[in-house]
Amino acid sequence: MQMPEPDAAIIARKRDIVAKLKTILPATSVVDSEEGCRAYDADGLSAYRQLPLVVVLPETVEQVAAIMRYCHGEGIKIVPRGSGTSLSGGALPLADAVLMAMGKFNRILDVDYDNRCVVAQPGVTNLAITHAVESEGFYYAPDPSSQIACSVGGNVAENSGGVHCLKYGLTTNNLLGIEMVTIEGEVLRLGGKHLDAGDYDLLGVMTGSEGLLGVVTEVTLRILQSPATRRALLVGFDDTAAAASAVGDIIAAGIIPAGMEMMDSLAINAAEDFVHAGYPRAAAALLIIELDGPEIEVDALIERVAALVNTAGASSIKISTSEDERMLFWAGGKSAFPAVGRISPDYLCMDGTIPRRALPDMMVRMASLSQTYGLRVANVFHAGDGNLHPLILFDANQPDELQRAEDFGADILRACVEMGGVLTGEHGVGVEKRDLMPIQFSEDDLKQQQRLKCAFDANHLLNPGKVFPELHRCAELGRLHVHHGKMPHPDLPRF
Amino acid sequence: MTADHPDNLNEMLSVIADAMADGTPLSVSGCASKSDWGYAIADARPVSVDRWAGIIDYQPDELILTVRAGTPMTEINKTLANKNQMLGFEPPDPSVLFAKTDISNKGSIGGVLATNSSGSRRLTAGAARDFLLGFEAASGRGERFRSGGKVVKNVTGYDLSKLICGSFGTLAIMDELTLKTLPRPEVSKSVLIPATDLAAAVRHIAAILATPHEPSAAAILPSDIVALASLDSSLDSSLDYGQMLAVIRFEGFAISVNDRVNAVLSLYPDGDSIDDAASQTLWQAIGNTALLADAAGDIWKLSCAPSAAPSVINALPDEWPLRYYADWAGGLLWLDVPTGDVTGTILRQALADHGGGFAQLIRDSGNTRSLVPPFQPLSSPQMALHKRIKAAFDPKGILNPGRMHHAI
Description:
The complex is a heterodimer.
Chain A: H1 8-12, H2 14-24, E1 30-31, H3 34-38, E2 54-56, H4 61-74, E3 77-81, E4 97-101, E5 108-112, E6 117-120, H5 126-133, E7 138-139, H6 152-158, H7 165-168, E8 175-181, E9 187-191, H8 202-206, E10 215-222, E11 224-225, E12 229-237, H9 240-252, E13 259-264, H10 265-275, E14 285-293, H11 295-311, E15 314-319, H12 323-334, H13 336-343, E16 346-349, H14 359-373, E17 377-382, E18 387-394, H15 401-418, H16 437-440, H17 443-456, H18 474-478
Parallel strand pairs in A: 2-4, 3-4
Antiparallel strand pairs in A: 1-2, 5-6, 6-10, 7-11, 8-9, 8-10, 12-14, 12-15, 13-14, 13-17, 16-18, 17-18
Chain B: H1 9-22, E1 26-29, E2 45-48, E3 55-59, E4 64-68, H2 73-82, E5 85-86, H3 94-97, H4 109-114, H5 122-125, E6 132-139, E7 144-148, H6 160-164, E8 172-180, E9 182-183, E10 187-195, H7 198-209, E11 217-221, H8 223-228, E12 244-252, H9 254-267, E13 272-274, H10 276-287, E14 298-304, H11 309-314, E15 323-327, E16 332-337, H12 341-353, E17 357-363, H13 380-393
Parallel strand pairs in B: 1-2
Antiparallel strand pairs in B: 3-4, 4-8, 5-9, 6-7, 6-8, 10-12, 10-13, 11-12, 14-16, 14-17, 15-16
């Protein structure tokens, strides 16, 4: 992975930069020792590591603004970081950049049941939002698997999803407002406790922008009343195509389950060895289907779903009769990653999305790629929305296995796009999928996205080297090309 | 000037190139059903995407619909209804509010998205912007570009779908659009609860939203508006319709809806419920702003924190011949207020004093929009950012310049 060439002049000025940052922040909030910086050298994509120039730990919006103003004025790059759980390298440090870690922004500011929202600082963890409101029966819907550790600010940057997004949406659908600081150090408030501000939807643009457009310093999140009941089905199939079409049948019948997870044979057996949840070991595919809502509705629909999967050719059906049993059904799915970790020294977790009807073709393709690369792959799949999580098993101690695993992963993502899907459903592009962007987007598509970046950050100081495979200078991106020989005002000098 | 009707995106790129060459702005429309919303575009060449109509792909079991931007809403609604699906954000029918003698239609999907028009289910299901998954468009640079995808879960690149929704055609001209669809509920019923005043009504709704009974929409109708809804003729009820009502809608499978309606009525013994047909008629009137369609004054739309609605309404001058009702649990206020610029200033001040929000002039019965900005004015750093974004997509200011704000 090629990162932008570090600016030697900035690195040479480290001592001055640290001294200046210590006038903005308490000295203890500026980490410049190699030992101190080591704790920040990677995020959840730990194959990539880089020591930052310096780490800053601001705790007020004024401090964030002052750091941004200073860095903007001096041409120093900034990499924002939440809890560092990104699986795509979104918070990977740069050798010549200030790493801005938002962990000290850790307070919930306002729990507002009248307006069904929580105002929190960005370093608060995802799960802490639910914990703050569950006594009144509320919860925060987006539930990325890292929710115990990941921060809500990071969730905004990555537009995090989770198991329940088909029914409840991603972060972008559950975010009412933010306070953010621009690279110039300007503080902006977007949205709030009201809906739909009526100007350009900058809140929507910021969500999922992977730290390239601004630093979030406060979030306003929509909370929902918890459903009265949750029940789950565990359904085995002898054939992946039948499992995929069962999912389609359920949705076509007008039922939107709260969650629908699919696992393939390797994942089923790894999980069963690990948690003994009673999974059907012989099945080619396993569906975990969860319904939530009023009790009378869930009880009625669970029978309907059972009938649908039966007609679709299920080889085994279990319906949860208690909360413990429901949790047990999920235990395997939720522990799929550590379970696979037990059967392989290392694994890479991919994250593409395909139209669900392409799933049988994709399984065939993956099996053939698995042979080509000589590496096993286990599949965990958010079946309702077509979000694949192939886990590629490899051993980093074997020469070239990491490279082979990465090439395998890239081929899977190419296949996702070829089958009508996308490179990433919920993990983000970061550095991991950066160089694959031209598979999904044309040069004009990518340039238009980068022009938006230029509107926020004309000098590419915020998180450069992420998302876009090529950094174009903003002046170059702004240039108009000649259309059909008709350049407006051809006599005027330009740039 | 007669409108251009390019047949396809390539022809539109030519139209844009011509406009860039001679500096003539384009006034872009679909069905032109909402053309009175915002500023008129001065000295512009009209261009319409009304020929870009048709369903490209519809996969009901994947909840995916791909259409061209000029496709009439009537066609989309019919196609989805055939598979028992719908657009979850309940796009309003603008023909009631914007009825004109020469144009009376229900709009195009491109127009719905360009104006981010969402109806009553916005409270629980999201806005138009939450349902656009990807698009292809022509920028004001005369270039074709794509964003997003054709799957429901995707975080690849910036979410330009959000930006394009509600940008009123000022950034790009949308062509192919991919939307998320939802199953159409089997049944819809509503509970009507009498309220002594707006504050009490907002409290009733907040209390019901804090139960697991999952309402899909919640409105508040003052007694004069209840009278317009001609509810009493549509049902046999013991409820007194001479008072303010909180109206809470429950949707879904029949067995569940009946159960939830009964559960809520047991909490509010003085309430009553209306059945599917009456409920649907009432919510169409609420969502389409039909209840204020005969307004003599200007129609404004205010968005505020739901709990702030009573304070905002109380802050308005007593002498105004004010008519209003609330949707989105109190968070959306529709007002029929005296025409003129003073009104806008007062409305915006009332919002600023009570937690913020926005006030938009939707229908101008006089000359108001020449006196007061129809869209909520932006702070100067926000406007600076808006201008830079406009320039990133439309550097020559060719596309609908000034439709929202003079500077963009």
